[in-house]
Amino acid sequence: MRNGKKKHKNEKLTIILIPNSGNRAKRLSLTYRQIKGAIMAVAFLSFLLVLAGVNIYQGRQAVSEAKRIKSQHEQQQQQVMELNNKLLEMEKQRERIEERQEQVRKLVGVSSSLTPTATPSRGGVDRNSRTGGTRDLREISAEISNLQYLMDEQEMEILQLLNHAQTNIDQLKAIPNYWPVVGRITSTFGYRQSPFGRSREFHDGLDIAAPYGTEIRAAADGVVIQSNRVPGWGRIVKISHGNGVVTSYAHNSTNLVKKGDRVTKGSVIAKVGSSGRSTGPHVHFTIEKNGKPVDPLLYLP
Ligand SMILES: [Zn+2]
Q1: Domain-wise residue ranges, the chain
Q2: I need a surface site. Which of 8, 62, 86, 301 has the fewest CB within 10 A?
Q3: What is the whole-number distance in angstroms between the Cα of residue 207 and the centre of ligand 1?
Q4: Which CATH class is domain 184-298?
Q5: How far does residue 184's CA lie from ligand 1's centre (Å)?
Q6: pLDDT per position as a tens digit, 231-280
Q7: pTM for the complete prediction?
C-alpha cells in the first residue's frame, strides 16, 4: 500500500494545449504533488486577497467612524462653548439683578441682604475656571446648580423686600398729611382768645373755613371709630390711623361714613357745616398722637 501511494504521488498528469492555428501543441506535465501545491497556493492567495479586502473595508469603516466621532466631538465642544457663554451671560445678569436688589434695599430702608447666606457664596463656585477658559460639562452643571441656589435666595429676598415696601407704603398712607378741605385757616393750634367770650382757651386743632357743603376728605388711610353728633362739636367723624394716631373732623353738616368703615386718604367722609358750637361753616380738624393733640400743621404739607 505504501509503495502504491508513493507511486501514485509520482504519477504525472499531462495537459496538452492545442492551438487552433495549427502550430505545435504544447504539453505540460505535472505531478499530483505539483498540482496539489498549485491548488494550495491559489487557495492561499485567494484567502490572502479576501483577508486584504476585509482589512481594507474595515479600515475604511474605521476611518469614516473616526471622522464621524471627530465631527461629533467638535460639535459637542462647540455646544459646550455655547453653554459656557450662555452661563457667563446668566451670571452677569444675576449680578445685575443683585445690584438692583441693593437699590431696592436702600429704597425700603434695609441696610444689608435679608437672606444671610447669599453674600458669601456670591459669584459662584468656579471663579477660577471662569477666568482660566472654558469649563467642562461637570463644572457647567455645578455652576448651574449654584446659580439656581443663588436665584432662589434672590427670589426669597425680593419677596421680603416687597413686604417691606408694602409696609412702608401702608405707613405713608396712614400719615395724616392730606388737607381735609382746601380753605382759609381761621384758627390755628394753641392758646387763643375764645370766639365766644373774653377768656383764653386752648384750641386743640385747626379751623379751616370752607363753603357750606364742601366735601371733607380723610387726611389718611384708617378706620372710622366715631361718627355721630356731640354737644359742642356738632356732627363729628373720628378716624384711627394706627400707631396711636387719630384725626377728627367736626361741625359737619353731614357725616357720610359710619363707625367701622375703612377709609383711604383723600376719600370723602363728610360735608362742611356749622353744627355745634360754631360761628360759621368750617372744619375743626384735629390730630391726636397717643391721646394728646398735636399741631396738624406739623403733618400737613
Ligand atoms: Zn376749632
Answers
A1: 2-67, 81-173, 184-298
A2: 301
A3: 5
A4: mainly beta
A5: 13
A6: 999 999 999 999 999 999 999 999 999 999 999 999 999 999 999 998 89
A7: 0.65
